Amino acid sequence: MALSLLRTGTLAIMRQTPQTRLFAPLQRCTPYLLRLMSNKSSDPEKPVNVQLPKKKSNLAADKTPISWKNLGISVVVFGILLNVLWYLKKLRKEEIEKNKVLSIGKAAIGGDFELVDTSKKVVSNKDFAGKWVLIYFGFTHCPDICPEELEKMALVVDNIDKERSASVFQPLFISVDPERDTPELIAKYTADFHKRLMGLTGTVDQIKDVCKKYRIYYSAGPKEDGDYIVDHTIIMYLLNPKGEFQQYYGRNKTAAEITKDVLVRMAMYKE
């Protein structure tokens, strides 16, 4: 009877009481309390075995979405992709720089000129239209550097002639010493290096003009008994069949390297 009244009273209180945090635990625990009281009243000596609700295990929390193996593979793949992107960016940058140099070279180096050859015939840059031209600026009284460079140029000419027709490639020697380098003297000088090497000279103003257009520095040193050395830029210029600047070669370039570069440019050139 007392148990019945307690059960009835408790349920009545719960129905009339709002669902607050204070009574929420009471509502969940009431069935178990009632069961405990019921068991205790029926058999006081029987042990009470109350089964509380089991807590659900959070399997989703126990499982890690990314394993160490997957993480390692992701890092390796990301590293490879990063290296590939870096390499492609480097190639693109080098290509841009190369095109930039060529563009600047075409605008800054070269131009029209008019000189005289060893037969005292007037020659201009237009006479070499349709040919590849390799130019070296020097002087006949040069003790060592000019002969070395002209010997190198002679080797390049022989190498090119083996691969291409001689009519498409013209080597030129332009003097930076117009006061001493006469057409007759240049004819003897160039013949010692190669039969196809054409020598050009001109007046002081003409040489000054062509050297300015090709960015060649030259300056005569002090004179002793009429002899002097001319300090000048040591370089070769390659012009394409349109007379446009293509490449330059310094003293550090060998005949084989120059030959290879010229042949590649000839193969890739399009009118």
Automatic annotation (TrEMBL):
<keyword id="KW-0479">Metal-binding</keyword>
<dbReference type="InterPro" id="IPR036249">
    <property type="entry name" value="Thioredoxin-like_sf"/>
</dbReference>
<keyword id="KW-0186">Copper</keyword>
<keyword id="KW-0999">Mitochondrion inner membrane</keyword>
<dbReference type="GO" id="GO:0016531">
    <property type="term" value="F:copper chaperone activity"/>
</dbReference>
<dbReference type="GO" id="GO:0005507">
    <property type="term" value="F:copper ion binding"/>
</dbReference>
<comment type="function">
    <text>Copper metallochaperone essential for the synthesis and maturation of cytochrome c oxidase subunit II (MT-CO2/COX2) by facilitating the incorporation of copper into the Cu(A) site of MT-CO2/COX2.</text>
</comment>
<comment type="similarity">
    <text>Belongs to the SCO1/2 family.</text>
</comment>
<keyword id="KW-0812">Transmembrane</keyword>
<keyword id="KW-0472">Membrane</keyword>
<dbReference type="GO" id="GO:0006878">
    <property type="term" value="P:intracellular copper ion homeostasis"/>
</dbReference>
<feature type="binding site">
    <location>
        <position position="232"/>
    </location>
    <ligand>
        <name>Cu cation</name>
    </ligand>
</feature>
<dbReference type="GO" id="GO:0005743">
    <property type="term" value="C:mitochondrial inner membrane"/>
</dbReference>
<comment type="subunit">
    <text>Homodimer.</text>
</comment>
<keyword id="KW-1015">Disulfide bond</keyword>
<feature type="transmembrane region" description="Helical">
    <location>
        <begin position="71"/>
        <end position="88"/>
    </location>
</feature>
<feature type="binding site">
    <location>
        <position position="142"/>
    </location>
    <ligand>
        <name>Cu cation</name>
    </ligand>
</feature>
<dbReference type="Pfam" id="PF02630">
    <property type="entry name" value="SCO1-SenC"/>
</dbReference>
<keyword id="KW-0496">Mitochondrion</keyword>
<keyword id="KW-1133">Transmembrane helix</keyword>
<keyword id="KW-0143">Chaperone</keyword>
<feature type="binding site">
    <location>
        <position position="146"/>
    </location>
    <ligand>
        <name>Cu cation</name>
    </ligand>
</feature>
<protein>
    <submittedName>
        <fullName>Protein SCO1 homolog, mitochondrial isoform X2</fullName>
    </submittedName>
</protein>
<dbReference type="GO" id="GO:0033617">
    <property type="term" value="P:mitochondrial respiratory chain complex IV assembly"/>
</dbReference>
<dbReference type="InterPro" id="IPR017276">
    <property type="entry name" value="Synth_of_cyt-c-oxidase_Sco1/2"/>
</dbReference>
<dbReference type="InterPro" id="IPR003782">
    <property type="entry name" value="SCO1/SenC"/>
</dbReference>
<feature type="disulfide bond" description="Redox-active">
    <location>
        <begin position="142"/>
        <end position="146"/>
    </location>
</feature>
